[in-house]
Amino acid sequence: MCRKCGKKIEISEIYRNTLCPVCGADLHSCINCRFYSPESHFGCKETVEELVADKERSNFCEYFSVNKGDFAGTDGFSQKSQEARSAFNSLFGN
After folding, report:
1. What is the DSSP letter of 52?
2. What is the pLDDT of residue 31?
3. Which of 24, 48, 51, 78 is most deeply packed, by most CB within 10 A?
4. What's the pTM value of the predicted model, to 2 decimals?
5. Is there a contact between 44 and 35 (Cβ–Cβ < 8 Å)?
6. What mean pLDDT comes out for the span 63-82?
7. Record's superkingdom (predicted)?
8. Which residues contact 58 (CB under 8 A, 6 or more apart)?
């Protein structure tokens, strides 16, 4: 899935210049990687040596591995967590 638009993509290999066929976003990027973790050092669960400033742009990271999890959009919340958040907020009238 593309983390930018949340659409499922049928691409067998992702290279540095591979784009999402739906929204045109870079697919070889931090936000599409299974090691992406905003709360980790440099935003990565791997031991990267350098900060990748723009997590949505293509990069040369050799640790890149496609995240095959369920997510929708760049906020990182799946549909299920969005529903839970909405239910929680409705309890307090937000």
Report:
1. -
2. 93
3. 48
4. 0.69
5. yes
6. 63
7. Bacteria
8. 16, 17, 26, 27, 28, 29
What burial letters (b/e) apply to 53-87, b meaning 16+ CB within 10 Å?
eebeebbebeebeebeeebbeeeeeeeeeeeeeee
What domain range is 88 assigned to?
1-94
Distance of CA 93 to the CA centre of its chain: 30
Q: List the beta bridge partners of residue 19.
A: 26
Q: Which position has the token pair 């929708």? A: 72
pLDDT tens digits along 4-54: 888 888 888 899 999 999 999 999 999 999 999 999 999 999 999 889 999
- In whole angstroms, give the CA distance from residue 51 to residue 41: 9
Distances (CA, A) of 48 to 33, 36, 74, 94: 13, 11, 22, 39
Q: Is 29 left (phi over 0), alpha (psi -120 to 50) or beta?
A: beta
